[in-house]
Structures are given as C-alpha cells and as structure tokens.
Write a structure and sequence with these properties.
- GO terms for molecular function: ATP binding; RNA binding; tyrosine-tRNA ligase activity.
- It catalyses: tRNA(Tyr) + L-tyrosine + ATP = L-tyrosyl-tRNA(Tyr) + AMP + diphosphate + H(+).
- It is found in: Cytoplasm.
- A motif ('KMSKS' region) lies at residues 249-253.
- Keywords: Aminoacyl-tRNA synthetase, ATP-binding, Cytoplasm, Ligase, Nucleotide-binding, Protein biosynthesis, RNA-binding.
- It is built from 20 helices and 15 strands.
- β14 (413-417) and β15 form a beta hairpin.
- α13 (267-275) crosses α17 (326-341), α14 (282-289) packs parallel to α16 and α19 crosses α20.
- With 428 residues, the protein is of the alpha/beta class.
- 45% of the residues lie in helices and 13% in strands.
- The chain is globular and about 75 Å long.
- The longest helix has 18 residues, at 97-114.
- It folds into 3 domains: 8-239, HUPs (Rossmann fold, 3-Layer(aba) Sandwich); 266-341, Tyrosyl-Transfer RNA Synthetase (Orthogonal Bundle), CATH 1.10.240; 351-427, RNA-binding S4 domain (Structural Genomics Hypothetical 15.5 Kd Protein In mrcA-pckA Intergenic Region, Chain A, Roll), CATH 3.10.290.
- A 6-stranded mixed β-sheet has the order 1-6-5-2-3-4, with helices on both faces.
- It has helices spanning 8-16, 25-34, 55-66, 97-114, 120-123, 142-145, 150-156, 163-168, 170-177, 184-187, 189-204, 216-230, 267-275, 282-289, 294-301, 308-324, 326-341, 356-359, 365-371, 378-386, and strands at 21-22, 38-43, 70-75, 137-140, 208-212, 235-239, 252-253, 256-257, 351-354, 363-364, 390-392, 395-396, 403-404, 413-417, 421-427.
- It binds one RNA strand of 82 nucleotides through α16, α17, α19 and α20.
Length: 428
Amino acid sequence: MTYHPKSDFMRVMIERGFLADCTDYQSLDEALVEGVVPAYIGFDATAKSLHVGSLIQIMMLRWLQKTGHQPITLMGGGTTKVGDPSFRADERPLLTPEAIDANIDGIKQVFAKYLDYGDETNRSSSSEAVGQNNKALMLNNAEWLDGLNYLDFLRDIGRHFSVNRMLSFESVKSRLDREQSLSFLEFNYMILQAYDFLELNRRYGCLLQMGGSDQWGNIVNGIDLTRRVLDHEIYGLTSPLLTTSDGKKMGKSQNGAVWLNGDMCAPYEFWQFWRNTTDADVGRFLKLYTELPIEECERLAALEGSEVNDAKIVLANEVTTLCHGAEAAAAAEATAREVFEKGGVGDDLPTLELTADEIGDGISIVQLIVRSGLAKSGKEAKRLIAENGAKMDDAPLSEAGLVLDAAALSTPIKLSAGKKRHALVKLA
RNA sequence: GGGGAGUUGGCAGAGCGGUCAAAUGCGGUGGACUGUAAAUCCACUGGGGCAACCCACCUAGGUUCGAAUCCUAGACUCCCCA
C-alpha cells in the first residue's frame, strides 16, 4: 500500500489490516477529511446472532464512529427474504418473515455494545440527524423493499442492469460453472442490495458501503446504480475475507459457529476461542479485533515460544471485554486459569443443571456428556469413552454403561472431553 | 413441449443384486509430542438406546431368499433440442 491517507479512518483501516480494496482511495479519503461521512454495512438476518465472522465488519463501524463518522447498520429485513447467492454453492433455505424479524431482534442486541446509537429518541431519527452528529443509525431495508411495486421497480431500477454483466460477476460465476442452479429469486439479490445503497444515499446521504471482499460485486453495483440514477459519486471499501493461517474459515469452534450473543455462546467459550488462536494469527487478530495501540499489538505478537500465550490471553480479554464487558472477561480468564493451570474447576465453565425429576432413578453418563454439550450424539459420547477421552472429575471413564443417581450428583461433578473441553454437572 | 444425465454419510466423491454403514479425500473428535499453538504421527468418525436391538444410500410403492444397487410412480437438479 503506497497510498498515504489524510483521514484518520483510512489510516486506521490501512494500519490495522482492515483494507482489502477500495473503489477510490483518494476521493473517499478527501470526503472523510471534509466532514462526517455516513457509511453502512448490511447484515442479513439468517441467524439469531451474528458470529465472529462478522466481527471485522463491526469493528470497522466502530472505528468509523471513533474517527468521527456516522455508522449505519442496515438489517436485511427485506434482502434476507431473497438470500445472497454470492460465493455460495447452493441455495439457502427460505426463512419465514417471522423468523427474519426474530433474527433481527437478536442481531440488534450486539450492535448496542459496539456502537453509540444515542438516545432512543434519536435512534429512529431520519435525515435530520445526518451530518449533525455521528450517532449510529439502525435501519432495516424492509422499510423500502417490502413495498416495492414490481413493474415500477423494473422500469426505474431494472433497466440500469445488464444481465450480461451480472452473469460475469465472480460471485455467481462459480455457481454457474458448477452447473448449480441459481434461481431468479437469488439472482435479484444483487439488484436489491444495489438499490439499498441508492436509497441510503438518497435518504441519509450515505457515501460509503463497506463489507467483506465477497461483497465487492454487490457494492460496485450499488455505486454504479447511484451514479446513473442520482448522479452521485459514492464509494465502496472491502475487508479481506479472513481465514486463519492454517487455512480454516474464521469463527468455527468444536461447537460450531462462535456467536456474539451471550445466550448462544457463553463468554467463557468466547474467551476460549480467542485464547486458542493460532500463533501466527495473534498479531493480525490483535490489530483487527482489539483497540490496543499498534505498537502494543506488535510487541505482543513478537513474543517468542510459550510467551505468546500471554499475548493470547490479552487478545481474549480485550475481545471479550468489547463483546461481553470487562467483568465477563475477567471471570472467563479466572476460570481458565483455575481449570488449565491448576486442573480445578471454575464457576464459568459450561454448566448443566439437572432437577431431581430429570435424574429420576438415575441418568446415564452418556446422556450427561451429550446434554452438557461435550458430545453431539450418544454415539459420539460412547466413542469418547471408548477412546479414553472422557473423564469425570479428572478420572478416565472406562464404563459406558455408568449410571449416576441423585446422590452421586449431590456435589457438582466435572466432565471433560479431552484436555480442553470441560463442563460442570450439578443439581438445580 | 421432446430427449438425455443425475440425487449416496458434515462436504467432495466411489459403489450398480448378497461379503455395504457403504472405498477414498477433506473436515471433525480422541491420543502422542508441546506452550490450552503450528507441523507431524496413531486411532476413531451416520443416528437412537444402559443394552439386546432398531432406523438408515431423495420420497412412496414393487420384484427378489436377499436392494444403495433392478422395476413403477413422484419430487428436485443439470444438459441438449424446440
């Protein structure tokens, strides 16, 4: 990167590794110097929570606000009804409108922790707020997509799109090359997303759309459309698509996706995810996911040998603090130290509470392992036991048929799967 | 509208009447080595059940002593022609 930005925002993006590509570095940079730039990122409501894969976008919005600009979080209430086909091998199952609304409610919760939306009264404010402050805006594209009239839309918007060009986008090419079907419904997604950008520019003066590099095509479409319809020049900026250094997709743990909502991924598990970062990723992640000064990130990343573990603890603490608060981070760290350094138990371990009713005459150890989340199925639990990977209070379980009664559970027991995954079981 | 090909475990992809829960690769889990790292090596890896055992190769029927494999109908996908 030879470009030297004048704006704080661009400087941070470049320094910290957020920048994959930008449609026009210089003009965007100048706009950022001149005044408050409203910028948006869209989030589709395909699940009740976002996961760490979206954290990089959230951090971009946070930096945007920190450097004096206005973040707009756009919920895809309308677009989720269509489903983004970009770089996907198959069609997503269609979600019901109710499910989408419920997902949006879940997703919204997390943003309040990262962005300042101002007072309730300001939150839904319209154009009035724009340019006057940099309070974040929470919007939903269902607002303008739900009521669209098909023919009007085709005539006003559709005429600006060339199917030839749409087919040439990398995001759908692989799908077509693999001879997988791409429904007309999905094919329209990029038009709707482009229209979002147009509407956000028209209504809120939004100048910039950000997103992962998989969104490049969709973003560029919005820029082109806005130029044609409104003759406004607006910008796009993408972040690299993150994989860990060992080539895996960002954000998976043994229990699946690492969610940002606390009720779907406990702070302790969240903390563990970061604590287990691969050595090679520590520096990169510190810059992207924490707000520690660059020099500090680099110092920590340079630690040698087992000392990088200290850097990983800092990383876990910082990221967990942003997402769940300082208290939760401290509790997670305390539990981790207790469990891993002393081989004991900690309050923050995933805990399964059973009522006397549930136990009845006794409950099998296999069931306990499954219900505490250490195995996905009974078969898996039994396999674990057979391979000596399952432990109860640190003693290997040898008997898969073991049944525990209420008396055996009168004091909490610790179940372990391997060396790293632990859970507590106790009476409610 | 007509013709052809296909649908197999988390994914990719073999199998084409019994020895098939089903090759192989990826992914995942456990173990060894370590630093709660990476790389490497070893093992395991469809589901339910404490177990006996049961369910399972798109769906529903059928033929067979016996079907993922054959037949019929249906659903979905891809290709070619109009």
